[in-house]
Amino acid sequence: MYKRPQRVAAIHDLSGFGRCSLSVILPVLSAMGMQVCPIPTAVLSTHTGGFGEVEFRDLTDYIMPTLAHYRRLGLEFECVYSGFLGSEAQIDHCVEFFASYPDALSVVDPVMGDHGKPYKTYNAAMQRRMIELAAVADVITPNLTEACILLGEPYAFEPLTQSKAKSMLVRLSEKGPHYVVITGVNMAAGTMSNIGYDKERGAFWCVDCDYVPVSYPGTGDIFASVLTGGFLGGDSLPIAMARATQFVETAIKTTFSYGTETREGVMLERTLHLLGDKDLVAKYRIL
Ligand code: PXL
């Protein structure tokens, strides 16, 4: 019998050039068999990482009327997934969106910064409000910079010991979410790892990444999207983390081999087909 694809309401910006946010979230989740309904928070000519002055149109007043329309239509979503937000009011609107779909998996990628620095558009008030949004999520996927901002701590430039890593995961989960995944963690043991915590089970997980001497924008969006698609497809936390890590690693290595400009993001076009491979990816460790 026909079963419609699972639906994801994706509340993120649309950056035209540079392969991040909705430009990568849509293809990734579609390739994983999900129907993505984009709710753009802003439209930008490029992402904010390296293309000079950006054309930016805020769409704060678009979110609530769109939610109202979907409610009138009786549209159901299996997942609501938020990311880059352009204003404080958008955070309130996302909270309301999540509250309107209490049975949906709620994923908050608290996009705020990278490499120890907040993005230009994220002021201190927005950083504080993002903590409120993370509190209503089932899953959060900060990178290490964002994890430090959410915890109100200075950025951890030193490699993290296992006990510090576990403490960060637990303290983030105490703010609300059941699953916490921190990406891009330089571990004291010498690995670059993505680490995760399942609050209900009290279980910690770690997936190591191969080192590549470059960093591309949009990889956090791709990671969170593959993780979300994995969960919706029935993956456990460590399997979803392993799937997302492996895909991002392959996309980065493929792109690096061509030597393209890093600000243009990863060559998703050359790797997207790999997401159709449902084989179990089990390259995880217990942290
Ligand atoms: O990939 C995160 C992201 C999303 N949206 C915009 C960005 C960035 C990172 O630079 O600039 C507009």
Q: What does this protein look like?
A:
By secondary structure, the chain is α/β, with parallel strands linked by helices. The protein has a single domain (7-286), classed as 3-Layer(aba) Sandwich (UDP-N-acetylmuramoyl-L-alanine:D-glutamate ligase). Helix content is 37%, strand content 22%. It contains eight helices and twelve strands. It has helices at 22-31, 60-73, 88-100, 124-135, 144-151, 162-173, 219-232, 237-258, and strands at 7-17, 35-46, 56-58, 79-82, 105-108, 113-114, 117-118, 139-140, 179-186, 192-198, 203-209, 285-286. The chain has a ten-stranded mixed sheet with strand order 3-2-1-4-5-8-9-10-11-12, with helices on both faces. It has a two-stranded antiparallel sheet with strand order 6-7. Helix 1 (22-31) packs parallel to helix 7, helix 3 runs parallel beside helix 4 and helix 7 runs antiparallel to helix 8 (237-258). The radius of gyration is 18 Å and the shape is globular. 48% of the residues are buried. The mean pLDDT is 95. The structure holds 3-hydroxy-5-(hydroxymethyl)-2-methylisonicotinaldehyde. Residues 13, 15, 20-21, 44, 47-49, 84, 111, 119, 217-218, 220-221 line the site of 3-hydroxy-5-(hydroxymethyl)-2-methylisonicotinaldehyde (PXL).
What are the defining features of this structure?
binds 3-hydroxy-5-(hydroxymethyl)-2-methylisonicotinaldehyde; two-stranded antiparallel ribbon; ten-stranded mixed beta sheet; 22% strand; 287 residues; UDP-N-acetylmuramoyl-L-alanine:D-glutamate ligase; alpha/beta
Topology:
Layout: E1 7-17, H1 22-31, E2 35-46, E3 56-58, H2 60-73, E4 79-82, H3 88-100, E5 105-108, E6 113-114, E7 117-118, H4 124-135, E8 139-140, H5 144-151, H6 162-173, E9 179-186, E10 192-198, E11 203-209, H7 219-232, H8 237-258, E12 285-286
Parallel strand pairs: 1-2, 1-4, 4-5, 5-8, 8-9
Antiparallel strand pairs: 2-3, 6-7, 9-10, 10-11, 11-12
Helix pairs in contact: 1-7, 2-3, 3-4, 7-8
The chain binds 3-hydroxy-5-(hydroxymethyl)-2-methylisonicotinaldehyde (PXL).
3-hydroxy-5-(hydroxymethyl)-2-methylisonicotinaldehyde (PXL) binds next to strand 1 and helix 7.
